[in-house]
């Protein structure tokens, strides 16, 4: 194990020999690290925090700290992070609250760029990108393969669907459709399918064609949302069913 002499590791913390703990980092007594994690320097890990293997955490990041919630009074809530994440400078990840499920959870193979904030009880999937200063309020859900642009705040209890792309500077106050390209030029709008991102993820031309039909029904046809969803369900394929199911279970409404 490589622990810099200036680092402070509390008794009880579980750190495998394969980890590297850089200068001036502090690790609390209930922290559990997986194999081959690298804390570059000045990293704070606090609370009941469990972090998987091969995570690289850059300077001035704080993980598992108390939530920014006035109702929180020291309850033993948790933070859980998967494997292979890159967490850049000055990221803050708050632990959960008892009323929000008690846990903030992040999956695997994500890139969290500098100054990202993940609020209490948020759930981030795997293979996501949160660009610089993307901000998740409490109770936000980010599904797998989604991207949140720089300086984009996401309101409490919003869900960003899988494979969605949110442009920089977009204020998200409703749910973001899966597979969509959503941005704020003059007002928040879903501009259609995230074609470039889906091609990069290996979507076939056939899958893209069916999704394109779904988005045309939803965004450009002269139908209300319920009518469009009914037409989307007539299309074949798992992807369009995901879109229809997402809309029907949305509690905040979706950005169209």
**DSSP strand count:** 26
Basic shape: elongated
In CATH terms, what is the architecture of the largest domain? 3 Solenoid
CATH superfamily of the largest domain: Hexapeptide repeat proteins
Can you characterise this structure?
This protein is of the alpha/beta class. The protein is 16% helix and 27% strand. The chain folds into 2 domains: 2-142, UDP N-Acetylglucosamine Acyltransferase, domain 1 (3 Solenoid); 198-249, Up-down Bundle (Udp N-acetylglucosamine O-acyltransferase, Domain 2). It has 4 helices and 26 strands. It has an 11-stranded mixed β-sheet with strand order 1-3-6-9-12-15-18-21-24-25-26. Strands 2-4-7-10-13-16-19-22 form an 8-stranded parallel β-sheet, with no helix packed on it. It has a 7-stranded parallel β-sheet with strand order 5-8-11-14-17-20-23, with no helix packed on it. Helix 2 (205-219) packs antiparallel against helix 3. The model has no long low-confidence stretch (mean pLDDT 95).
């Amino acid at each position: 194990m490589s622990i810099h002499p200036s680092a402070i590791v509390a008794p009880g913390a579980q750190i495998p020999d394969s980890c590297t703990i850089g200068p001036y980092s502090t690790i609390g007594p209930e922290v559990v690290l997986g194999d081959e994690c690298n804390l570059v320097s000045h990293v704070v890990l606090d609370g009941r925090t469990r972090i998987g293997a091969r995570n690289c955490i850059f300077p001035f990041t704080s993980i598992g700290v108390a939530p920014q919630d006035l109702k929180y009074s020291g309850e033993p809530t948790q933070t859980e992070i998967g494997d292979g994440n890159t967490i850049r400078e000055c990221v803050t990840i708050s632990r959960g609250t008892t009323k929000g499920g008690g846990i903030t959870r992040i999956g695997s193979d994500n890139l969290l760029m500098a100054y990202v904030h993940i609020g209490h009880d948020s759930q981030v999937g795997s293979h996501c990108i949160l660009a610089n200063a993307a901000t998740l309020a409490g109770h936000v859900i980010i599904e797998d393969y989604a991207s949140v642009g720089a300086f984009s705040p996401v309101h409490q209890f919003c869900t960003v669907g899988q494979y969605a792309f949110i442009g920089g500077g977009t204020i998200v106050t409703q749910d973001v459709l899966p597979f969509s390209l959503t941005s704020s030029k003059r007002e928040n709008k879903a501009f259609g399918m995230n074609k470039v991102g889906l091609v990069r993820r290996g979507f076939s031309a056939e899958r893209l064609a069916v999704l394109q039909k779904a988005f045309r029904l939803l965004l450009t046809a002269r139908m209300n949302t319920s009518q469009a969803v009914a037409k989307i369900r007539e299309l074949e394929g798992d992807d369009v069913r995901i879109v229809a199911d997402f809309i029907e279970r949305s509690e905040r409404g979706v950005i169209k």
